[in-house]
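Changelog-adjacent note: as of this version, every example in the card shows the full chain rather than a window. The one below runs 127 residues end to end.
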Amino acid sequence: MMRRYALAVTLIAAAGSACIALWGGRLEGPSVRGAILGAVLAALGAVFGMALLAWSFERGARHFVGAVALGILGRMTLFGGVLICVGLLRPVNYGMTAVAVSLLGFFFVFQALEVLFVVKRVKGSRA
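Full-length structure tokens:
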């Protein structure tokens, strides 16, 4: 299950990044790089969060709830840290708004995919 999820996340992030790069003519260079950074960060957060969930499935409800909480906290720390760094350091190569919008958009897409995989896993274990 984890391999399929990681493959799906990677394919979605790659396709999204390719679309961002192709439509980059409408955006400035820093915005394109910022949007791709957001996609990569959201993908990393999604894969590591799901790995934590996959680890907790066979360990009971207490571990599962802990993994969900730790996954949320870890992602928000990663995302917040990067946004703070981009916002405070103001690197010329990255657009702050593009990072934030891309990160948020890909985060919701990957959350929907994660819920789909978890529901499928729970249904499969009950059958």
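Structural remarks: The chain has one domain: 2-119.
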